[in-house]
Write a structure and sequence with these properties.
alpha/beta, seven-stranded mixed beta sheet, 13 helices, 14% strand, 12 strands, binds pyridoxal-5'-phosphate, globular
Length: 385
């Protein structure tokens, strides 16, 4: 039995998406910028994908720029706005301490080049408080970047409230919706944001395809310069097959967002309750609500997360110790640390992220294997309970 419980790292590509990508790769080789028949067919593929992604998030197709994924979209939003607003004297950027590295490391890079940056704290809930943002905002703030859903604990941030606060001080607002788009309803107008990042491989699409939604009229400078692709906002010949896959994945996600969300939420509840009941010394990290329905992060007293990950992998269950970027190193999660969890809990927690292929049988198997795995690890370290 092989069970994949790591959908926040990436998801399996839906067979219908595979079919669209393969067909586009074979048949639509034209350059979407070419005027002739072949180019126009490729452009048609991009137009369809743009409409599907716009429909998923409630924006206009013309407001979307295709990118190579979440990391590029986050970089484009932050670097692009920072550069565009530099002449206005707004040289202050705000993000939260629980952002993905694509945001935090980008802010650090800009800090080295003279931008003032503030990372606002979160409490043990893993939710950004409006008061923390209010305290950080000033008249020089150019951009606030707060993620919609956290990749490690799944908490959903009060984006509409935070964006309104940013706007009241004349700042723009970006949200990294890489872990929410395709999983829960995302509506750019209701969220009230100016920029939103998403990535296809987090919702059963291909890797290397994503988008940045940019509200019409938002001041932003291109970070990839060259030709006039994507209405001169992102130079480079478009990856038409991958973008077609993004469009198909967006269409599929939109068609089942509430049914799949309810299904995963029920699976997660059973999984969490099962773990808490069967394994002593366990606790859920972060606020139980609001969360994306597929994610849980659980701490196991007297266990090393990496050892548990490996032991579970030997039983055929793939989980994670945090974001994919930080797993593989023994660094404790910066998110759990930022939430103020004690050091041992930042090192004994695993993330389980469910997805479309998971079933009740997977949760049953996991709950059946887990107690013995944990007991064995605890007995090896002499920490019997
Ligand atoms: C919240 C968040 N932002 C950004 C990214 C980066 O996206 P991509 O892998 O498409 O570059 C990820 C991926 O783990 C993520 O979880």
């Amino acid at each position: 039995m092989r069970i994949y419980f790591d959908h926040n790292a990436t998801t399996p590509v839906d067979p219908a998406v595979v079919e669209v990508v393969a067909r586009t790769l074979a048949d639509e080789f034209g350059n979407a910028s070419s005027v002739h028949h072949f180019g126009q067919r490729a452009k048609g593929v991009l137009d369809d994908a743009r409409s599907a992604v716009a429909n998923l998030i409630g924006g206009e197709p013309s407001e979307l720029v295709f990118t190579s994924g979440g990391t590029e979209s986050d970089n484009f939003a932050i670097r692009g706005v920072a550069e565009a607003l530099e002449p206005t004297g707004r040289r202050h950027l705000i993000a939260s301490t629980i952002e993905h590295e694509a945001v935090i490391v980008t802010l650090k890079a800009l800090a080295r080049r003279g931008w003032r940056t503030t990372l606002i704290p979160v409490g043990a809930s893993g939710i950004v408080e409006a008061s923390a943002l209010e305290a950080a905002l000033d008249d020089e703030t150019a951009l606030v970047s707060i993620m919609h859903a956290n990749n490690e604990i799944g908490t959903v941030q009060p984006i509409a409230e935070l964006a309104a606060l940013a706007h009241a001080r004349g700042a723009l607002f970006h949200t990294d919706a890489v872990q929410s788009a395709g999983k829960i309803a995302v509506d750019v107008r209701r969220l009230g944001v100016d920029l939103l990042s998403l990535s296809a491989h987090k919702f059963n699409g291909p890797k290397g395809a994503g988008a940045l939604w940019i509200k019409r009229g938002t001041r932003i400078t291109s970070i990839l310069t060259g030709g006039k692709h994507e209405r001169s906002r992102r130079a480079g010949t478009e990856n038409v097959p991958a973008i077609a896959g993004l469009g198909k994945a967006a269409q599929l996600a939109a068609s089942k967002i509430s049914t799949e969300g309810a299904r995963l939420s029920a699976l997660r509840t059973r999984l969490e309750q099962g773990v808490l009941a069967r394994v002593p010394g366990t606790a859920i990290n972060g606020a139980p609500e609001p969360r994306v329905p597929n994610t849980t992060n659980i701490s196991f007293e007297a266990i090393e997360a990496e050892s548990l990950l490996i032991a579970l992998d030997l039983e055929g269950v793939a989980v994670s110790t945090g974001s994919a970027c930080s797993s593989g190193t023994l660094e404790p999660s910066h998110v759990l640390r930022a939430m103020g969890l004690p050091t041992h809990r930042t090192q004994n927690s695993i993330r389980i992220s469910l997805g479309s292929g998971n079933t009740d049988a997977h949760v049953d198997y996991f709950l059946e294997k887990l107690p013995a795995v944990v007991q064995k690890l605890r007995s090896l370290t002499g920490a019997r309970r």
